[in-house]
Specification:
single chain; alpha+beta; 15 strands; Oxysterol-bd_CS; Oxysterol-bd; sterol binding; Oxysterol-binding protein
């Protein structure tokens, strides 16, 4: 799950330079396009991501064609209730994203639904007067878990808004009906201080269009376009060089067993991680200790990174690297 969140950082070129756009409505559409571009990247078939354990973290780096870099860190900061906090930062491109996800799952017969509480807070640091662009998440549904074809869908409504500019969009992710409709449909209306600006429509897995109030249309994002195929690769340290509670190393025995289709070994590997978690909790309880996240802290009701961003981009780039990958 912690690594899955990083897929939303896969098309950074869609947002780089947005602070140079003078029109706030056009800037808002750039943010919206960036957010919607991450949903098409998902595992083939329906594969439930591993539930992160307390203190687990995932970190990676991105090297971009323009010679700049981005970094990403996510940590499981709470187990009951489950909360994943994350931070993305590209100093030279002046983009910062802070977010948290609080999933709540329940079984619905042949389906599982997951309410994705939480929000993404995107900031164009080159346009500080905009403040934060805040975007909530749609809910997720896995259908056919007991019988029939397994299908992953997004459903219900999420909201993208910027209070400083007065722009907002209610995005409805539509679930396919039994006898009609289509998979992965999305519709939404963009408003500026309540007045209609235009309409978003399409399929988040294929192509999304924007139609302005005059009726003029243009493509907001197309998965099959050059931009859609240009996915930023995650650069991750080899598992043997990772810390024990980094995601890929934490779960590597389970991953190996699943790839080998050895369900007995998979069960043993999963139990080993869970048993270690219970032992850690027992030890903390005996010593009267509370779990303290390594990278994030709770402030004003939300989870934020334990990192102060320096004003100079070059200094910030070095500082964030040292914070996420300390040299000593």
């Amino acid at each position: 799950m912690l690594e899955r969140i990083a897929d939303f950082m896969s098309h950074p070129d869609l947002i780089f330079g947005a602070e140079q756009i003078d029109n706030p409505e056009e800037r808002f559409l750039v943010i919206l396009r960036y957010y919607l571009s991450g949903w098409h990247i998902k595992p083939k078939g329906v594969k439930k991501p591993y539930n992160p354990v307390l203190g687990e973290f995932f970190r990676c780096r991105y090297d971009y064609p323009n010679g700049t870099q981005g970094v990403y860190i996510a940590e499981q900061v709470s187990h009951h209730p489950p909360i994943s906090a994350y931070f993305y930062f590209s100093p030279e491109n002046q983009v910062r994203i802070i977010g948290e996800i609080r999933p709540k799952s329940k079984f619905l017969g042949n389906s599982v639904s997951t309410n994705m509480e939480g929000e993404n807070r995107i900031m164009l640091m080159g346009k500080p007067d905009d403040g934060e662009y805040v975007i909530t998440m749609p809910n997720m549904y896995a259908r056919g878990i007991l019988f029939g074809k397994m299908v992953f869908e997004l459903g219900d409504t999420c909201v993208a808004k910027n209070e400083k500019t007065g722009l907002a969009c209610d995005l409805e992710f539509k679930i396919k009906g039994f006898f009609s409709g289509t998979y992965n449909a999305i519709v939404g209306r963009v408003r500026h201080y309540g007045a209609d600006v235009g309409e978003v429509s399409g399929r988040w897995s294929h192509e999304i269009e924007f139609k302005d109030k005059t009726g003029k249309k243009h493509t907001l994002f197309d998965v099959d376009s050059e931009a859609g195929k240009r996915v930023a690769a995650k650069i991750v340290s080899p598992e043997d060089e990772q810390e024990p509670n980094e995601s890929r190393r934490q779960w590597r025995e389970l991953t190996k067993a699943i790839v080998a289709k050895d369900m007995d070994a998979a069960t043993d590997a999963k139990c080993a991680v869970e048993d270690a978690q219970r032992e850690d909790r027992r030890r903390r309880d005996e010593n009267g200790e509370e779990f303290v996240p390594r990278f994030f802290e709770k402030r004003d009701g939300g989870w934020v990174p334990k990192f102060q961003i320096p004003a100079d981009p070059r200094e910030a780039a070095a500082a964030v690297q040292e914070w996420i990958w300390p040299s000593s």
